[in-house]
DNA sequence: CTGAAAGCGCTTACAG
DNA sequence: CTGAAAGCGCTTACAG
């Protein structure tokens, strides 16, 4: 366990430790011959640099904190993948930090990561970015962060979103073109920006098609399966029920389908169902779900690149990015 | 950004930095009065200790590496939750390390985490533990690790498993008691210990019930939806098809159900389907899936506690733990 | 292109 | 119960 240090490498290579450090960090201004000597010594001794030492000496953690709400482990999966892969590619680690956004003192835990020097920057997923005070504090001390689909869109702060409104508009139009004139809707949680945007896309499409908005076939959900199930149960039992239901996300759409089946009806024969997100679940239920693809990994990747650029003090192309969505037509609609 | 250090706290409290360190680490032998003075100073200055400094000085990372196969982000979710929560509870961080077990040099990346002093111990999820050379190397240098459901069960090395064989036995018996005499089976990937154990539970149950094992209604799968789908497609088109299909995991069971529906048959009226794991998906398909609950979070929690005990040099109760499974009866069987 | 010195902010090992 | 010294293994800032 007594591991090799930079000092031993320097001795063997007959250079100073600073020169070894230069080679390790790929700095310029090292004579090719010297570099070779050092590399040989490193190889011979099986030297691997200590990350904690580097972190302490440099004052940087080379780590990105990914902040998300406890309750959204599912949504977080693709984000996690996108962030971790991109971060790794640029030599950064990722620190996952699930937290309870409903708790008053979650900001404390997050600020501690800063003061403990565990992270150099943050990525926030919704609705973890709703903590106003926290965001303000980070902004004040100029600590870098990028948010995913944040609620407020103050123009100074960077964020990455999907084209949620357009996506929902497209899907609603698709349903209308299929001949549906009564399209029900299950809304997502109010604290999420995307829920508002998607709903707006739905109402815009109705308007454009000249269809009157009908409040009675619109229900509030919370993005979980159960709420899709119960909302759809109510919609299905309506006197004049819709011929299609569009849900804020795939999980609620799956819940809606279960409710429809339980009521003895068929999808899509009796009612068409559409979702949003294109998570694996949407392919794993029967019939496979028509949905709007939200390229979560891509969003996460973009956000990570943006953050790393900030950390490196590089120029950033777009302060606010909107990644396009696209329709995925499967068998739950007709 | 010029943050407060232990030195400034010591000055304000009029003690040595060592005493501040004692208070920070909750060591005994600090006079109550001194402790108060230090705590006041900490509070007044808003001091937060630097983690990288602590790591370098102590030679410990207080971090657990969670090693899993790239391709199993889904399975990993509950493991991740269990490990992270338990680790956090004991003051440890978690470093996620997805890797490609099929790659020859994945061992290198993992050993680097050790040499870079990024982690104090590992938890391996299957099939990430199949790298024989790596396991041997870790064992040789006595680096602590705990494996989840490992393939080999060398008695020296700690692991945590579920009672996979018993669980599959119970489910098969349940199906037989329901009146099924022809129960098909979709096997899991050969590189997974659990796949072997579960299949053994199935054959044991058949034997105990005096039912002849029929190779023709047993198919090989790989735990993914698609393989469940294609295996079930074949089973369904058999002349003398079974009246029930038991799958190595829930995802394949969902795939099997889709294949059955596509063939114009009904679940459970024409064919009963059962899975294993009890992942969220099992409740989100219709009809909801009868399955065997594998308490993944609990397994992960147990493994983490075990590992931390090793790190602390504490006694460990059970070197090899087997967490019990239980039947979850829903509507996909009758 | 290379190096000597100082320091990052803690803990360890020892002494009292 | 408390402290002075040394050191963890690197990087920074500066000098040449």
Task: Write a structural description.
Two copies of one chain form a homodimer. With 334 residues, chain A is α/β, with parallel strands linked by helices. The first copy, chain A, has three domains: 6-58, lambda repressor-like DNA-binding domains (434 Repressor (Amino-terminal Domain)), CATH 1.10.260; 63-161 and 308-314, Response regulator (Rossmann fold); 164-295, Rossmann fold. Helices cover 45% and strands 15% of the residues of chain A. The first copy, chain A, has helices spanning 6-13, 17-24, 32-45, 51-58, 73-89, 106-115, 132-140, 164-177, 193-208, 225-236, 250-262, 281-284, 296-311; strands spanning 63-69, 93-99, 121-124, 145-148, 159-162, 183-187, 218-220, 244-247, 272-274, 291-293, 320-323, 326-328. A six-stranded parallel sheet of chain A has the order 2-1-3-4-5-11, with helices on both faces. Chain A has a four-stranded parallel sheet with strand order 7-6-8-9, with helices on both faces. A two-stranded antiparallel ribbon of chain A has the order 10-12. The longest helix of chain A is centred in the N-terminal third of the chain and has 17 residues, at 73-89. The interface between A and B is large, with 45 and 45 residues. Chain B binds a DNA duplex (16 and 16 nucleotides) through residues 5-7, 15-19, 21-22, 24-25, 28-31, 34, 49-59, 117.
């Amino acid at each position: 366990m007594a591991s090799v240090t930079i000092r031993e490498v320097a001795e063997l290579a007959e250079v100073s430790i600073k020169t070894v450090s230069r080679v390790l960090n790929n700095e310029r201004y090292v004579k090719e011959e010297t570099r070779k000597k050092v590399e040989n010594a490193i190889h011979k001794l099986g030297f691997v640099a200590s990350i904690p030492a580097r972190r302490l000496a440099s004052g940087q953690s080379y780590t990105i904190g990914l902040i998300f709400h406890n309750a959204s482990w599912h949504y977080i999966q693709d984000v996690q993948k996108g962030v971790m892969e991109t971060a790794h590619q640029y030599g950064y680690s990722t620190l996952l930090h699930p937290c309870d956004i409903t708790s008053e003192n979650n900001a404390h835990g997050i600020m501690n990561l800063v003061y403990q020097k565990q992270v150099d920057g943050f990525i926030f997923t919704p609705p973890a970015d709703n903590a106003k005070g926290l965001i303000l504090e980070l902004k004040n001390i100029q600590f870098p962060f990028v948010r995913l689909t944040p609620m407020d869109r103050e123009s100074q702060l960077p964020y990455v979103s999907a084209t949620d409104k357009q996506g929902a508009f497209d899907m609603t139009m698709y349903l209308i073109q299929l001949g549906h004139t009564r399209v029900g809707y299950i809304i997502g949680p109010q604290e999420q920006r995307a829920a508002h945007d998607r709903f707006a896309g739905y109402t815009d499409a109705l308007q454009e098609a000249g269809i009157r908005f009908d409040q009675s076939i619109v229900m509030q959900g919370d993005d979980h399966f159960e709420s899709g199930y119960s909302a759809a149960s109510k919609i299905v039992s309506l006197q004049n029920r819709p011929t299609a239901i569009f849900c804020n996300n795939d999980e609620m759409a799956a819940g809606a389908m279960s409710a429809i089946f339980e009521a003895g009806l068929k999808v899509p024969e009796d009612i068409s169902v559409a979702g949003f997100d294109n998570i694996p679940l949407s392919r794993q239920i029967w019939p496979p779900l028509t949905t709007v693809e939200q390229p979560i990994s891509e969003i996460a990747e973009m956000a990570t690149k943006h953050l790393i650029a900030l950390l490196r003090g590089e120029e950033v192309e777009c302060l606010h990015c909107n990644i396009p969505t696209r329709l995925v037509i499967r068998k739950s609609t007709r």
